[in-house]
């Protein structure tokens, strides 16, 4: 299963979670991502919608992280970074590029 399919599965599970909670507590919440002013948008519904938004952002973040890790391995081969056991190539690559361009934390 691709990461895209896993993300979609996560989104569907969050939607199911909200549906089941709504059935359990008798609150007719709007479906995540759907505006329905006749149904209450309580904290639970807001939390589920926000979690789905975060989950969907992984569609952009995973490819970026993969490319940064690839860059990190290239930088290591060029001797520009020296990762230690447990270091994350993507984080080291980002730190290197930011430092090269004078951008600091």
Task: Note down, in words, how this protein is organized.
- By secondary structure, the chain is an all-alpha fold.
- It has one domain (3-100).
- 67% of the residues lie in helices and 0% in strands.
- The chain contains three helices and no strands.
- It has helices spanning 3-25, 43-77, 89-100.
- The mean pLDDT is 95.
Instruction: Describe the main β-sheet briefly.
Output: none
Structural class: mainly alpha
Which strand-content bin applies to the residues? under 5%
Give the low-confidence spans: none
For the record, the count of structural domains works out to 1
Net shape: elongated
TL;DR?
The protein is mainly alpha-helical. 67% of the residues lie in helices and 0% in strands.
What attributes characterize this protein structure?
single chain, mainly alpha, 105 residues
């Amino acid at each position: 299963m691709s990461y895209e399919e896993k993300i979609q599965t996560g989104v569907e599970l969050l939607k199911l979670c909200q549906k089941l909670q709504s059935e359990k507590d008798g609150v007719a919440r709007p479906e995540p991502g759907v505006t329905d002013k006749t149904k209450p948008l309580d904290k639970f519904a807001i939390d589920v919608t926000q979690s789905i938004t975060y989950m969907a952002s992984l569609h952009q973040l995973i490819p970026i992280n993969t490319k940064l890790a690839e860059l990190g391995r290239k930088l290591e081969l060029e001797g520009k970074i020296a990762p230690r056991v447990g270091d994350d190539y993507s984080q080291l690559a980002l730190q290197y590029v930011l430092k090269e361009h004078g951008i600091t934390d």
